[in-house]
Amino acid sequence: MDTKYQEIMNEIHAQIADGRLQPGGKLPSIRALSEAFKCSKNTIIKAYNELEKQHKIYAVPKSGYYLVGSRHLDSEAEEMIDFVSAGPDKWHMPYRNYQHCMNQAIELYKEDMFQYAEPLGLSILRSQLSKQLQALQVFAPAQRICVDSGSQQALDILVALPFPNGKEEICIEQPTHFSMIESISSRRLNAVGIEITKEGIDLKQLEKIFKERPIKFFYTVSRFHNPTGYSYTNKEKKKIVELAQIYDVFIIEDDYMGDLDTRKKADPMFAYDPSGRVIYTKSFSKVLLPGLRLGAAVLPESLIELFSKAKFAADVHSPVLTQGALEIYLQSGMYNAHIQNLRTIYKKKGEMLKRAFLTYLPEGVTFTGAESGFYSSIQLPYPLKASHLVNSLKKKNVLVQDATGMYLPPYKKENVIRLSVSQVENRKIEEGIRIIGEEINHLVRKNTSYFGGIN
């Protein structure tokens, strides 16, 4: 029987490889395979169960089995090393467990799906989030928690809202993620940048900005910064909060991946001022399912009404079904088990990336955030431009991100690339960094005038 069930699994793998089975496609029924292979149904069930454990397929009750996704196994794609894609590793996502939660949510909330829900989110989910956030040292009542369509929705709303301090300018780290740049630029808001490096930010410079400019809020990604991968120390976080208190500045702390922090005593900025000075946001997109599009924001009481009205105008309410499924997933303990698994995975990736950087990057090339296991950046030596390196590496089947668009215009740098190892197989990390290092060396040896003409 063992030989037969392995034979069945090999056949499914072959159908995935040659394209006969596509992502989302339905697999043959247990009965059909049983007849085709002339074996018992239990043998087919054993093969399908093994494929489920490998996250290759998933079951839909009373419907059958479906293909989760397919690694493109053609020779070109097999060689591609993708340091651009920054979502969670799809091969370690809890498809099956979350499917159970979705099915249960349909039963529990089927009547609620035919009416509008509270703009700030299902009360039962907000209560569960209040309990869940305590593990991150964020203690806030459910009444101050808003469920949003990913943390970016909360950030986009907050950018446009008037704040109690009556100020209008925004201070943001440079660089920062594309969507925050777009939220600020599209509204033509006045923004002041402060550079973040592998050593963090200049706190004296931050104080000068807070003292001399009418800063409404300071936007910061406090852990696993995008794109540098930097995580602030507790001492730095506490000092930033103290400066905000002195100069009447709010802080929006984007802790979208705080769950992955393996430092046992690492606290968010929110822990140093839970009164409302620090607005805490998090998302489940990077650690759970990107398509879930759910996040949470802990708001000061003075902003709740304004925020609620703005969110209602944007989308009325976040989907009831996905809210219900998330509540069940959190309450059941599945989320905590999943996070423990991800911490191990990303810590290993980070260690491998740092070793590769130290081994293969040329002298004079600096990098940040290798330990995060998610984001990191490489600053290229003058006169090499990121756009040129991106194009050159693509020809060698290595994808990296030009970080130029992650800067406000006055602070723009054109020699920084962003990398994420979140979806890169461990065996390809060293190879990819070796190719990057070789290509930087190759381009640096070119005549300086050659680079001067590259746009």
How many independent structural domains? 3
The CATH fourth-level homologous superfamily of the largest domain:
Type I PLP-dependent aspartate aminotransferase-like (Major domain)
CATH top level assignment of the largest domain: Alpha Beta
Which topology of the largest domain does CATH recognise? Answer: Aspartate Aminotransferase, domain 2
Quote the average pLDDT: 87
What's the arrangement of strands in the largest beta sheet? 4-10-9-8-7-5-6
Largest sheet: 7 strands, mixed
Summed up, the helix count is: 16
What is the CATH architecture annotation of the largest domain? 3-Layer(aba) Sandwich
DSSP, total strands: 15
The end-to-end distance, rounded to whole angstroms, is 62 Å
Low-pLDDT segments: 70-77, 449-455
Radius of gyration over C-alpha positions, nearest whole angstrom = 24 Å
Anisotropy-based shape: globular
Question: Helicity, in percent?
Answer: 40-55%
Structural class: alpha/beta
**Which percent range describes the beta-strand content?**
5-15%
